[in-house]
Amino acid sequence: MRPYTLILSPKFFPIEDGLGRYTYEFFEALKRELPEGSVQVLTSNNDQIFEATKSWEGIFPIVGKWKFWHLRQCFKTLSKKSKPERVLVQYVPTMYGPWGGINFSFIFFLWYLRWIQRVKLQVMYHELHYPLLGDLKSLVIFSAHILMLVGSGGAANQLYGSTAYNTRFLKKLFFGLKRKVFHLPVGSNVTVSPISEAEKNERRKKIAPHGEMILGCFGTFHPSKNYPLIIQTLSDFLASGGAALKLVFVGATTEDILKNLPTMLQASAKKFVVGTGFLSIEEVSHTLQIMDGFVAYFIDGATTRRASMLAALQHGVPVLSTTEARGDELFKGLNFMTLLHHEPKLFSIQMTHALKQGWPLKQKKQGVEPIVQFYDAHFSWDILAKSYISYG
After folding, report:
1. Is-contact 355 243, C-beta < 8 A?
2. Of 81, 253, 262, 346, which has the fewest beta carbons less than 10 angstroms from its beta carbon?
3. Nearest partner of 57 among 81, 75, 74, 39, judged by Cα
4. Cβ contact 325:331 at 8 Å
């Protein structure tokens, strides 16, 4: 059997969260670029994954616990036929166990791969650590994740950062060990699905029956997304006579969004907030294609690991997001990227100003082609796979 790359990931198709979709798309892209049988996946022992992939070649959903002894046994089972030449770890520290993913046993397994099994170990850092939130729990998880970060990077031959900032951080952290560190963005977690103009018009009418402007957000409610800030800003904008609009939440129900808002904001939000509920990937693509603009608040700024924002660009939708020291320079100076200060009060003021100045309809008049071309040049899965292969 030819030498192959083994992707190690706790999530895979058909799990439609960020990591599950990423691992699937990256696996498929590598298959298109490499000889047959050159890439395989070791993932969690999950009934959904097993049923969806049982007829696929190279998918092994056999990991019950992400602990040293169990992972070692799974690896030995795979190696009986042929040992991989390299192992590419999809690293999201919160996903390797309970209590924030604190799991030093997993880190020991990475050292076992590098020094006992002598495979080329590569770690793709989607996230570095849990954030500090000012409480004891976050402090404990953050501290453990820093140790896990040092341990995993110390074991690896090559490291990949999903953002430019994380890549620079990894280079500084492991400078003395002379690790090879590369920037490898993520791609969109949505596949573009064709839709006719008639279908677009029908979908628009369901959401905006009076021809309102349609803005969009991705995913369910989470404090880090600052949805109350966005909704309050839009509520104030409408109350001051701003252009009529609808704010569509892809994947969440209207009730889920409203119940997480302050009571005084709920009444006004009901007038323009629309939740789609669960959608298939095809339906998500169709919903993106009827949006006039996409709103994405990130505390660390717009970066190349934000698959939801990239999905909007992939579909030619102008984006309003944030800028911060950790944000990626790649997104600055683009007509279709409106970047605002991440501080909440300034963000709200600047967002209101952008709306009054004609965002996003002004940007949309320039057409979808420049946006899609930008996405394809930097974030298409084939481009990402070729970049990874070129890094060796």
Report:
1. yes
2. 81
3. 39
4. no
Is residue 353 over pLDDT 70?
Answer: yes
Per the omega criterion (within 30 degrees of 0), is the bond before 318 cis?
no
Predicted confidence (pLDDT) at residue 16 exceeds the cutoff of 80: no
| Strand extents, DSSP E, the chain | 5-8, 39-44, 59-63, 86-91, 120-125, 158-161, 180-183, 213-218, 245-250, 273-275, 293-295, 319-323, 337-341
Two tokens, residue 88? 């590419």
User: Rg of the chain over CA atoms, in angstroms?
Assistant: 22
Among 27-31, 97-101, 127-131, 286-290, name the one with the lowest average pLDDT.
97-101
25 backbone φψ class: left, alpha, beta (φ>0; ψ -120 to 50): alpha
Q: How many CB atoms lie within 10 A of CB 18?
A: 19
- Sorted by sequence, the CB contacts under 8 Å of residue 370 that are 6+ apart come out as 335, 336
End-to-end Cα, the chain, rounded Å: 20
Long-range contacts of 53-62 (CB under 8 A, 24+ apart): 53/12, 53/13, 59/12, 61/12
Summarize the confidence of residues 332-343 as an average pLDDT. 96
Structure tokens at 110: 């990475």
Predicted TM-score (pTM) above 0.85: yes
Query: Before 209, cis peptide (omega within 30)?
Result: no
Among 96, 86, 356, residue whose Cα is nearest residue 240: 356
Helices 369-379 and 381-390 pack at an angle, to 10 degrees, of 30
CA 218 to chain centre: 11
